[in-house]
């Protein structure tokens, strides 16, 4: 059969385009072609540029090793000493004093106590000293495309990262560094948190969670506020069980009973609270045996930042220690 020149060209073009779309030609990582197609379709970004970014990312075995041994797997008696050290507390007090005016202005704006903003950056990055050594692209490619147990979550984070506008990136995407999980900046925001909660507080047209303290502080405060922080509300308090206290297990930290109900089940508060306040109960392994904690809405909000109750309690106790240090040193 004789082919015309135009038909021959159409066949060649079709074969060429088909080859470009084939994973065996286009993919450096499993699932890359589909991911690029989704981002390009939804954002209008250039597929070639997206592929170039992903081609430059590498699977990192050290990231897969790190995610298999999170600190939150430790019991409270071992977890607490990591974050409640004299140095972290004292440095937090000094950090608060140094940035007091900015912290208190932002705290008032968002209804979040400044010591909790400081405690978050203290726990996450030791007040900005350790924001992570991994390339964010490497981390999210590794966990999103090579880590089946949590691939759905991390693939979505990778997709969001590739979709973010330049004004929310804080620099060229392939140069950003962060944690092994792909969190970045002083407050360790994941891409979806940057998209949904990060704030351009200094009004320079860019969100910079690495070098702009107004953006860093306001983004943490906004995260808390948008997740339901109750201004002036309690966070957590010790509970004392009696000998007949009802065993209680909880799936998360969301308040689900009136405090009076827990009192009726044998758990006495060691301080007074407003009648009818909703609470939950955490039982943790302390150095001297079980510790029982009433946890309230603001504790639950902290667990939206990190779902571990150990993390939330460490942030709470660090914030309390920082606030105490600031008060005691306010009139030297």
UniProtKB/TrEMBL annotation:
Gene3D superfamilies: 1.10.530.10, Bacterial muramidase
Record keywords, A-Z: Signal
Residue span(s) of domain Transglycosylase SLT: 33-320
Pfam families noted in UniProt: SLT_2 (PF13406)
Signal peptide interval: 1-26
Entry GO MF terms: peptidoglycan lytic transglycosylase activity
GO biological process, one term: peptidoglycan catabolic process
Catalytic residues as annotated in Swiss-Prot or TrEMBL: 124
Protein name: Lytic murein transglycosylase B
Gene name of this polypeptide: mltB
């Amino acid at each position: 059969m004789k082919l015309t020149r135009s038909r021959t060209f159409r066949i060649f073009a079709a074969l060429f385009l088909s080859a470009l779309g084939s994973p065996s030609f286009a993919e450096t990582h499993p699932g890359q072609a589909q991911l690029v197609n989704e981002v390009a379709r939804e954002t209008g970004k250039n597929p070639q540029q997206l592929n170039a970014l992903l081609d430059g990312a590498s699977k990192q075995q050290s990231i897969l090793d790190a995610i298999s041994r999170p600190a939150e797997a430790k019991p409270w008696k071992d977890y607490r000493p990591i974050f409640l050290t004299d140095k972290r507390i004292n440095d937090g007090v000094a950090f608060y004093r140094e940035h007091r005016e900015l912290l208190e202005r932002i705290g008032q704006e968002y209804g979040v106590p400044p010591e909790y903003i400081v405690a978050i950056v203290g726990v996450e990055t030791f007040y900005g000293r350790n924001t992570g050594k991994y390339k964010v692209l490497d981390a999210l490619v590794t966990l999103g495309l090579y880590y089946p147990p949590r691939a759905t979550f991390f693939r979505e984070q990778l997709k969001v990262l590739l979709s973010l506008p330049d004004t929310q990136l804080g620099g060229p995407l392939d140069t950003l560094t962060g944690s092994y999980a792909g969190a970045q900046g002083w407050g360790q925001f994941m891409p979806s948190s940057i998209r949904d909660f990060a704030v351009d507080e200094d009004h320079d047209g860019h969100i910079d969670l690495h070098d702009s303290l107004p953006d860093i502080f306001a983004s943490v405060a906004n995260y808390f506020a948008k997740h339901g922080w109750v201004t002036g509300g309690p966070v957590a308090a010790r509970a004392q069980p009696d000998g007949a206290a009802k065993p209680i297990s909880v799936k998360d930290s969301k308040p689900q009973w009136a405090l009076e109900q827990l009192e009726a089940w044998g758990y006495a508060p060691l301080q007074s609270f407003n009648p009818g306040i909703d609470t939950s109960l955490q039982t943790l392994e302390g150095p001297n045996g079980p510790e029982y904690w009433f946890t309230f809405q603001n504790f639950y909000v902290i667990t939206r930042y990190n779902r571990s109750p150990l993390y939330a309690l460490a942030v709470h106790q660090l914030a309390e220690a920082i606030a105490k240090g600031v008060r005691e040193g306010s009139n030297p």
